[in-house]
Write a structure and sequence with these properties.
about 180 residues; 1 helix
Length: about 180
């Protein structure tokens, strides 16, 4: 129930904010039974120099187990801050972005002898990404690829995501004609 409410709430917010969407794959040990995940996220950027931004991102990602339709899986709600460094030093084009934060909510639902068992977890999040940022009129569009790990309960949940974001700007750059 909590998973459904979180997905609907963040999807609604993402929809009215010009849709930030991602396709995510869990990677690492014991993840072969998970299908491709999906998610929505909000990402804001605050320019601090001509070519760099401080970013803030919150997302919700859902991963289903390939278990014949029982509906088990994992949901995560990470909040991260990052530093986006544009390679051309103009705030557009190719960039790299390290991020760190905290997973506010993680739930893995498993079928245990006919009963659903929810395992909850939180933990520190580390991520690294790259992408291409360009403007469509005045809206920054971000096509990105990111690796993320959540350190929790003595292990980690690792993901690789491909995202498309219509960005939210809190402050206009000094030079926006890129």
């Amino acid at each position: 129930m909590i998973k459904a409410v979180l997905i609907v709430a963040l999807s609604f917010v993402a929809t009215i904010s010009n849709a930030q969407l991602g396709i995510i794959k869990m990677v690492g040990p014991n993840t072969g039974n998970y299908s491709m995940g999906y998610g929505a996220y909000l990402k804001g950027a605050y320019p601090i120099t001509k070519g760099d931004d401080i970013t803030l991102e919150i997302g919700v990602y859902d991963f289903k187990l390939n278990d014949g339709g029982i509906g088990d899986g994992t949901i995560i709600l990470p909040l991260t801050a990052g530093y986006r460094f544009s390679l051309n030093r103009k705030g557009s084009g190719f960039y790299v972005e390290p991020q760190a934060g905290y997973n506010l909510l993680g739930v893995t639902s498993l079928n245990d002898k006919g009963y659903t068992k929810d395992l909850k977890f939180n933990g520190v999040v580390f991520a690294g990404g790259t992408g291409y940022l360009f403007l469509v009129e005045t809206v920054p569009i971000d096509l990105n690829l990111r690796y993320q790990t959540i350190m929790a309960n003595g292990g980690s949940d690792n993901t690789i995501s491909l995202g498309l974001t219509a960005g939210i700007r809190f402050k206009k750059r000094n030079v926006d004609n890129q």
